[in-house]
What does this fold into?
Amino acid sequence: MGDEITGRILVVDDDPTVAEVVMRYLVRDGHEVECVADGREALGAAAARPPDLVVLDLMLPGINGLEVCRRLREASAVPVVMLTALGEETDRLVGLELGADDYVTKPFSPRELALRVRSVLRRAKGGSAPAGRGPGRVDDGDLRVDLGAHEAELAGEKLSLTAREFDLLAYLMRHPRRAFTRDELLERVWGWSFGDSSTVTVHVRRLREKIENDPTAPRRIVTVWGVGYRYEPEDDGAP
It folds into this structure.
């Protein structure tokens, strides 16, 4: 397994059995793993030794997972994979809005979680390309996406994007004026053949907040009613 898809993982779960199983699978995949049992410990561990990715249970004693996610996102763009119970759809969507990169629903297969962790890490490190992505840069007016460096800028200012936000923006910009359904974006951008399409809605909302002058009246990532979303370039010379 290549070094580009391994890293230092912080696992946050107050169930010692779950934490032990998750740690065993992640270590088997070549990761270095630290486990903590509550939100306050998690924030302290992340500050003392920043991880490459956080596996975060939402139901934690003390500071809950959503608040931990919010504070982590304020401090850095560290990827976060959430663990949620089956009935926590509202919390899951809030977590995605706070900037979590992915989620796995309990009860889950440890192997599935390990694969999700590998996928998010690979994207965060720029080591994997969604469909349609190639080397180089995509520009549209004052918005620039550097595909090789995995960075985006707006009006000369670097954008703080999660790995999934970056992949979605890059894919839409490389396919301007083409409408995609939410299910198509789930599969083509992130490789999910299953999943909650509301994940796309959340990431589109977050992108609009970061690249649109008025997120309530978007001009770049527009809604195509009854279909999904389309990227409308501001620069006539856009690809």
